Amino acid sequence: MSEIVEERIKPRRFNPDEVATVALSFATALASTWLLLYVLLPFDGALGFWLITYIVFIAVVLINSRRRFGKIASQDLVAKVVVWSSALLVLVPLVLVVFYVIGKGYHALRPRFFTEDQRYVGALSDATEGGGAHAIIGTLQQVGLAAMISIPLGVLSAVYLNEVKGRFAGLLRTLTDAMSAVPSIVAGLFIYASWILALGQQQSGFAGALALSVLFLPTVTRTAEVVLRLVPGGLREASLALGGTDWRTTSTVVLPTSRSGLATAVILGIARVIGETAPLILTVGGAFVVNTNPFGGKQDALPFFVFRLVRFPQEAQIQRAWTGALVLLILVLVLFVTARMLGGRGPDHISKFKRKRLQKKGLA
Amino acid sequence: MIPTQEQTESVVPEERIEIAVRRDVPDRIYRGVATAAGFTTLALMALIGGFLLFRGASALRKAGFSFLTTEMWAPDQGGDFGIGAVLPYTIQISLVALFIAVPISIATALFITQYAPTRIRRPLTSLVDLLAAIPSLIYGLWGLFYLQPRLITVGKWMGDNLGWIPLFKASGPAPHSIGQFAASTFVAGVVVSLMVIPLCTSVMREVFAQAPMGEQEAALALGGTKWGVIRDVVLPFGRGGIIGGAMLGLGRALGETIAVTLIISPMFVRQFSIMEQGSNSIAALIALKFSESNANGISALMAAGLALFLLTLLVNAIASVIVGKGRSGAQTEI
Amino acid sequence: MSTINTQSTTSNTSQTSSGDQSIIHSAGEVFIESPRGLSARNVSCWFGEKKVLEGVNLVMRPLEVTALIGPSGCGKSTFLRTLNRMHELVPGASLAGEIQLNGDDIYRGAMPLTEVRRHIGMVFQKPNPFPAMTIAENVLSGLRLSGLKVDRHERDDILETSLKRAGLWKEVKDRLGEPGRALSGGQQQRLCIARSLAVKPQVLLMDEPCSALDPSSTRRIEETVQELSDTITIVIVTHNMQQAQRVSKFCAFFLAEENQPGRIVEADLTAKIFTTPRDERTNAYVSGHFG
Ligand SMILES: Nc1ncnc2c1ncn2[C@@H]1O[C@H](COP(=O)(O)OP(=O)(O)OP(=O)(O)O)[C@@H](O)[C@H]1O
Ligand SMILES: [Mg+2]
What we know:
The structure holds three protein chains of three kinds.
Chain A: H1 16-40, H2 46-69, H3 71-105, H4 133-164, H5 169-179, H6 184-198, H7 205-229, H8 233-241, H9 246-257, H10 259-274, H11 278-283, H12 302-309, H13 315-343, H14 352-360
Helix pairs in contact in A: 1-2, 2-3, 3-13, 4-7, 4-10, 4-12, 5-7, 6-7, 7-10, 8-9, 10-13, 12-13
Chain B: H1 5-9, H2 25-63, H3 86-115, H4 118-133, H5 136-161, H6 185-209, H7 213-221, H8 226-237, H9 239-255, H10 258-263, H11 282-289, H12 295-325
Helix pairs in contact in B: 2-12, 3-6, 3-9, 4-6, 5-6, 6-9, 7-8, 9-12, 11-12
Chain C: H1 6-18, E1 22-26, E2 29-33, E3 38-47, E4 50-60, E5 65-69, H2 76-83, E6 93-101, E7 104-105, H3 113-119, E8 120-123, H4 135-145, H5 152-165, H6 169-172, H7 185-197, E9 203-207, H8 215-228, E10 233-237, H9 241-247, E11 250-256, E12 262-269, H10 270-275, H11 280-286
Parallel strand pairs in C: 5-10, 5-11, 8-9, 9-10
Antiparallel strand pairs in C: 1-2, 3-4, 3-6, 6-7, 11-12
Helix pairs in contact in C: 4-7, 5-7, 7-8
Bound molecules: adenosine-5'-triphosphate (ATP) and magnesium ion (MG).
């Protein structure tokens, strides 16, 4: 046995020469922008400063690298720098938004925010008084109802598009694509025009749920269809070859196989719908007290609550709005993480629930 | 008489079997229900158009074609109204948003598919999806409280130094007050771009990821640089995705309501400058005017909503066709 | 390893000769058409307007293994899929001719489509157990899919016998609750065979069932096929000449000449096809000169 330690070749992602050029260019850009803005063209504000620094930076990288590496390699380097920096830039607002909302909202976040409504709260009361229970209950009921309407309907339409493959599937797919971008305010306007004006109903949580469904349904359909498309055709054939009908193939093979994908799609859809404000402005009516009946009387909703309060002049109201926004953000983040965790499961994951069912049947 | 192999070679026209499938009752119910569900989208679309038209008819009849040109909104008092200024503002905001979002999205999509280490591609994709999941209300709040004070310094600088370009013009003589640049088309457009970026990025990422590996490697093997491969293979291949993604982003931007409503101060007279205070959008108009409108006002808002609905539908149908062309129908194999 | 199970051969001969006999010529060879078993008469197939198979006559005798061989693209899979009405699943596909199971036309007869497929099972090239189901559920899935109701005792019985016949029982009897995909490729394929057997088919169609497997798994499947042929009619597509010789009693050689639909060149006892074929092309193919 030889004692030679093999040294593996690691392709380098970064060439030190290039890194040096980029770093040098950045320093040059920083200095010259500072000179330009503070000495020659007075400009206050960090944002503008960084903007111009960036532009100068790219220019300097281009000039420097062309001298050192030639035209082709310098283009390559500039492209690399631009792409890396843009991708970083996209993540900046994400971080800033999350921390800003936390920073603004957490002062006044008390347990009572989840248990009390605004019935004893005046415009001048302290921001920690009262709570958003009425809005949270409203949102949960409205989104729950919307989910009850849209999820079955959406999954079924996805089944039509991808399993039944009816004659109109192509047309309906394009329409669904187009529908999934219906502006949220139009959804609200539509429910107002039909449910409230034409059918003479009152503004209520249910009207809000209908408006949310208009937005939710195409989203569910589209994402569910993508998930169904991932089910291998061979499984469908195997099922049919065993004497399965179309219905049994869909219900016992296709849908269970795509279960985790469907769950992810649905939860991401809920996360999107839960923050919708515009359709609710027109449909739920808004309220300051708890109303647990979505079918009768006006209701509030968390996003609507935030939207209304933030436009008050009083600091305390704005503070309440931020607290509401933080709760909303937490809800969205929780849903998002749940969806991602479910999505990581393969189709052969056997849940505790299923294990129990199998044991009862004597199959495990 | 049973034919032999030789006989079948003569030209007897073979009769193809007509396949008639008799389905059992559950199967027929299943297909019926699924078909009905598939058609709800169509029904919904027709209903939306129908109801908005029905409710907006009286306003449209009153205003006629001037609905598209009138720069004023006073339907409640029986005055004139129209989207002559609101519609251009809507489009301006969307264009500002696209101007920012499209290059950044292309770069981000390229980063995820071409540059990023394989390990971080999935988490990165997740983060972009998370960006899409944050409610527009929250972007609006953040834009209003955090971004706007910072953006108006840029607006002011442009107004002071580049004011001779009509797009950046600011009224009044040169050192302008900073407040003059708040609540502008520009600020609204930047905030909307945050909502457009994740959408565009995910469309473009999917298309770039399908760029043929063989051609990419061939280009590299010819001594091409990464950028060369992107320029000559990935971008030409992904052109449909870029255009389609941008169109989808446009559809999203046109209909964005809450963030715009929070930021702009509504204005019914056209102005070309995007930096100057005052802007508008159809969606924001509806959200802001809704609670204070009487029957006439509501009808006018319905007409405006119809215009927005048709506009976004058109944009999205085009986008869906462009993107759909590249959609791979290939199913996973087993 | 002996090729043909003598016992079953003799029992068959007596069966067929007692039945109603008619004579069908296939590439000049005389076969006894039996009322049991599967027979194809004058079958042609199209994908759209492209004809890929023409005038195929073949009798697949009951309780025997018939192998379909031929170069790639000559229409073996297509033919196999017409035998249990899977061909029509491809959009635009059509066919002409007649296919009978035990004397009943499976396309025009009274038997419902799902019954046809239940009686004529199929095993695919790549093992495809249902991912969302456990091993036991996979085996029993056919009962659910074809709507067969059985009581618990009977169900356990079917589970065990199907797995035993597929030669998998010993390996999985303690892990029936695990996902089907936790098995190795060869085990998965035998699971798929067990799954097909659970609905008690009369015929089992196998499309290159071993091509995705290693040699020892292949050997296990071949043994399984041999054992099964005592009780079930088997039609197997294979590219492996040795396999055809090892497992099949009869053999049909398909060939598609350039720009022509595929046809059967020769169908006969496997032993004859591989030793004294009548057609030059068959001889060239089985001796490895082309394809
Ligand atoms: N879905 C389809 N659409 C159109 N043509 C098809 C389709 N499936 C098969 N064909 C064509 O039909 C002919 C026969 O194909 P088939 O799959 O039956 O061949 P095969 O003998 O099974 O080949 P292999 O040994 O490679 O599996 C081929 O020319 C093929 O190109
Ligand atoms: Mg084949």
